[in-house]
Design a protein that fits this description.
The complex is a heterodimer of chains A (409) and B (460). Chain A has nine helices and 19 strands. Chain A is an alpha+beta fold. Chain A has three domains: 113 residues, OB fold (Dihydrolipoamide Acetyltransferase, E2P), CATH 2.40.50.100; 65 residues, no CATH class; 204 residues, Chloramphenicol Acetyltransferase (2-Layer Sandwich). In chain A, strands 9, 12, 15, 16, 17, 18 and 19 form a seven-stranded mixed beta sheet that branches. A four-stranded antiparallel beta sheet of chain A has the order 1-8-6-3, with no helix packed on it. A four-stranded antiparallel beta sheet of chain A has the order 5-4-2-7. Chain A is elongated and about 85 Å long. Chain A starts with a strand and ends with a helix. Chain B contains 13 helices and 25 strands. Chain B is of the alpha/beta class. In chain B, strands 3-2-1-7-20 form a five-stranded parallel beta sheet, covered by helices on one side. Chain B is globular. The termini of chain B are far apart. Chain B has three domains: 203 residues, FAD/NAD(P)-binding domain (3-Layer(bba) Sandwich); 107 residues, FAD/NAD(P)-binding domain; 111 residues, Enolase-like, domain 1 (2-Layer Sandwich), CATH 3.30.390.30. In chain B, β18 and β19 form a beta hairpin. Classes of the chains: A alpha+beta (409), B alpha/beta (460). Chains A and B meet through α1 of A and loops of B.
Chain lengths: 409, 460
């Protein structure tokens, strides 16, 4: 009996996962526990290990195709075994993801794979119509029962030339003469999720950004002192971001309206602060969440934040750790950015962007001093609150940062 | 809040309720009247019960032809028993829906519901008020008979279909205004029970939606059962005192008809009033609440399905729409599928059709092929002594796509199911040529009609 390898469910909310890369092909022998593919979903990237030793008989889900959890993605068994391949049932997937694609061709000859693999479900009327229009039915996306191609689907495919499925976007974004030079990168997995979320965020809320500068000279001094003390115990250190996180948590307690979400014409105020920290990965952005940050000390926030960021970089972060934040912090300081306009992690009401700290001469009373300035950018949802209370919130953060002892006492 | 509230307990509403409950939602069903709606209480089911009695009466009267000798002068209808049986059937079926509600843990509240907001309902019952909250609301309040503009229903002389099925006795005479499905069904019931029936239809023929050669068979049969049919005729005046109706006929003459009852069956209108739809941003007109193909109204938290959205007012369409509305309200994305909807008329003979009529197909496709097979050439129909009528299929010339079936004849409403499957699966005639139909059955006529498209029918 061939073993079915299925798309795992990586969290309660996971609706779809994508095989980003097959590290093995049809005909390859695999050991139990050997990585055979890497998959991604809702900002998670992970390897799939072979559940048994054997030969990969069939790959049911090609690279880049999104399928719901539980869908068989490949079969592992004896090389001369027959596999009955069930078509993935893909009710909830967006149409662009269940285009029919033939499994990757391999050079291994005579592999006895059941003919079902290439069977396209299509109604008799649709088949004749497609033949008459000289359409390749493999490329038509079926919307009938069980993904069957119907008359409607063929009529739609006839209207839209099949060679250019993304026709519309192309003609808008890319000048005709440059098409040949353009490299096309399929948008899927994490990139697709980020694309959708960011666009949804901008389209579904009333965002604007306020900026302010905090004088963090005293804070930097305190940070160095505190780090020195901490490093006597372990080799961790407190960063400016840790202090900002702590200041944000305090400020949210002072301005509870900012710790909220706008959902279905209601403002939901949250009792606790679950702080999201944007972390840039090679493949995109993830936002691990420090739960109950309002109950954490500065050191706990620092420690937890670093742990989560580490896990995220290793692709080990469970999706539960990336959901449910009530406010988010994004830091572009390391890239030399000063102010910017962060995009809300909807449905949250606020996101704070931290810029790059810089030294500048500043008048303190009548004397010019060398001070360290930290640029802050607060994007908030104007549907929830207005400019004045949002400015007051930002002011509070600034005050905590300028008088750091107040948030430690 | 994970509650779905549904207004109306007819075919659309109770199916929506069960579907939402199966999706794990807490469901509240607000019902103004008995569960089961028009279909169970004063529509499909009770009329079919009366038809069964009429059919049996006719069968017994003609039993002599099959060699059963009965004392013909003692065959009579016990109207009281007919009514009792009808009530018992309705009660059994309504109880069945009650059981389904209980089984699916659906809370049923009696009362009239109106929208406070898109997440709140006010329910009024006997001047008592209750408010409930729900994340999504589904409206399925159904429809009601349209009265004549100049003569409202009085329940005594001018009656609607709901009243026509509960008359105290079999009327001596009945005038039916409107020769559509409901009018023809009542004509078929009462004419066979001995009532002198007159049908007045404004259009050129009975059953305006069906092909002339199909409705013509029924027309002839009704006439042979003693029904007088006035087509292209309108009602000029009505006199309640002497129970006379004055008809304005197409030839310019005025006819005067006396009738014990006047059944007005000129259509049904969606129940859209009294729910504060407007204030909650829900688009509607007298033709019903506007919805998209996911049954969602212009207020995204509110869905509507069944007769209240107008369109095709059939119980089985309401079942389908109820299910689609509930699935979408539960967060899925499904669309309604109107590809193959059978239309059934329970007269004697029965009429059933699915897909396009010949007339519609000619208008849409221009050149089409038509296949026909008469029941008179079918052994089983001859044995059953029911040889009237035919099966007709219309097919497109390019792909041999089956575009529609129309059947008039014995058990048409049952055998149309085969046509429904073929249209649903988008089957072409060439695939059906080597089909094996059981012999002897009425179903053979379906296969023979398909064969006759290419001149290959065997038994004609």
């Amino acid at each position: 009996m061939a073993v079915e390898v299925v798309m795992p469910k990586l969290g309660m909310a996971m609706k779809e996962g994508t095989v980003s890369e097959w590290s093995k092909g049809v005909g390859d022998t695999v050991e139990k526990g050997e990585a055979i593919a890497s998959i991604n979903s809702e900002k998670i990237e992970m390897d799939i290990e072979s559940p048994s030793e054997g030969t990969i008989l069939n790959i049911a889900v090609p690279e880049g195709q999104g399928v719901p959890p539980g869908t068989v993605i490949c079969y592992i068994g004896n090389p001369n075994e027959n596999v009955m391949v069930n078509k993935p049932v893909a009710e909830e997937i967006k149409p662009e993801n269940h285009k029919k694609e033939t499994p990757k061709k391999t050079d291994l000859p005579n592999l006895p794979i059941s003919k079902n693999v290439d069977r396209v479900m299509i109604t008799p009327v649709a088949r004749k119509m497609a033949q008459a229009a000289n359409l390749d039915i493999e490329k038509i996306q079926g919307t009938g029962p069980g993904g069957r191609i119907t008359k409607d689907d063929v009529q739609k495919a006839i209207k839209r030339p099949e060679s250019k499925p993304e026709n519309k976007e192309d003609s808008i974004l890319i000048p005709a003469q440059s098409i040949e030079k353009t490299q096309e990168i399929p948008v899927n997995g994490m990139r697709k999720i980020i694309a959708t979320r960011m666009q949804d965020s901008l389209q579904s809320s009333a965002q604007l950004t306020l900026t302010m500068k905090a004088d963090v000279t005293a804070l930097i001094k305190l940070q160095r002192q505190a780090t020195e003390i901490i490093q006597k115990h372990d080799d961790s250190k407190l960063t400016v971001t840790d202090f900002v996180a702590k200041a944000v948590v305090h400020s949210l307690k002072d301005h509870p309206k900012m710790n909220s979400a706008y959902v279905e014409d209601k403002i939901h105020l949250f009792e606790h602060v679950h702080l999201g920290l944007a972390v840039a990965l090679e493949k995109g952005l993830v936002v691990p969440v420090i739960r109950n940050a309002d109950a954490c000390s500065l050191r706990q926030i620092s420690k937890k934040g670093k742990e989560l960021a580490m896990l995220a970089r290793e692709g080990q972060l469970p999706s539960e750790e990336m959901n449910g934040s009530t406010f988010t912090i994004s830091n572009l300081g390391a890239y030399g950015v000063e102010h910017f306009t962060p995009i809300l992690n909807t449905p949250e009401t606020g996101i704070l962007g931290i810029g790059s700290a810089y030294d500048t001469p500043l008048y303190i009373e009548d004397t010019l001093e060398r001070r360290t300035i930290l640029p802050l950018s607060l994007t908030f949802d104007h549907r929830v609150l207005d400019g004045a209370p949002a400015s007051a919130f930002l002011q509070t953060i600034k005050r905590y940062l300028e008088e750091p002892m107040t948030m430690l006492l | 809040m994970n509650r779905i509230a549904i207004i109306g307990g007819g075919p659309a509403g109770y199916v929506a309720a069960i579907t939402a409950a199966q999706q794990g939602k807490e469901v509240t069903l607000v019902v103004d009247g008995p569960l089961g709606g028009t279909c169970l209480n004063e529509g499909c089911m009770p009329t079919k019960s009366l038809l069964e009695s009429a059919d049996t009466y006719e069968l017994v009267k003609n039993a002599g032809e099959l060699g059963i000798r009965l004392p013909s002068n003692s065959i009579e209808i016990d109207w009281e028993v007919v009514q009792k049986r009808k009530k018992a059937i309705v009660s059994t079926l309504v109880q069945g829906v009650h059981y389904l509600m209980k089984k699916n843990k659906i809370k049923v509240i009696q009362g009239r519901a109106s929208l406070i907001t898109n997440h709140q309902l006010r329910i009024e019952n006997d001047n008592k008020y209750e408010e409930i909250e729900a994340s999504k609301i589904i409206i399925s309040t159904g429809s009601e008979p349209i009265p004549l503009p100049f003569a409202p229903f009085d329940g005594k002389w001018i009656i609607h279909s709901g009243q026509a099925m509960s008359l105290p006795s079999i009327p001596t005479s009945l005038l039916i205004i409107g020769g559509g499905v409901i009018g023809c069904e009542f004509a078929s019931i009462y004419s066979r029970m001995g009532t002198k029936v007159t049908i007045v239809e404004m259009g050129e023929k009975l059953l305006p939606g069906e092909d002339e050669d199909i409705s013509g068979v029924l027309h002839k049969e009704l006439e042979s059962q003693g029904v007088i049919i006035h087509a292209s005729t309108s009602v000029k005046d009505m006199n309640t005192n002497n129970k006379k109706v004055f008809l304005d006929k197409s030839d310019g003459n005025i006819d005067e008809v006396h009738a014990d009852y006047v059944l007005v069956s000129i259509g049904r209108k969606p129940r859209v009033n009294g729910m504060d739809l407007e204030r909650n941003g829900i688009d509607f007109s007298k033709h019903g609440i506007s919805v998209n193909n996911q049954m969602q109204t212009s207020n995204s938290s509110i869905y509507a399905c069944g007769d209240v959205i107008g369109g095709i007012q059939l119980a089985h369409v309401a079942f389908h729409e109820g299910r689609v509305a509930a699935l979408n309200a539960c967060g899925h994305k499904t669309k309604v599928n109107y590809r193959a909807i059978p239309r059934c008329i329970y007269t004697s003979p029965e009429i059933a059709s699915v897909g396009l009529t010949e007339t519609e197909a000619r208008n849409k496709y221009g050149d089409i092929k038509v296949g026909e097979f008469p029941f008179s050439a079918n052994g089983k129909a001859v044995i059953s002594n029911k040889q009237i009528g035919k099966v007709k299929v219309v097919v497109d010339t390019q792909f041999n796509e089956i575009l529609g079936f129309s059947i008039v004849g014995p058990h048409a409403t049952e055998i149309i199911g085969q046509g429904t499957v073929m249209l649903h699966a988008e089957i072409t005639t060439d695939i059906m040529e080597d089909l094996i139909a059981a012999h002897p059955t009425l179903s053979e006529c379906i296969h023979e009609a398909l064969l006759s498209v290419s001149g290959q029918a065997v038994h004609t």
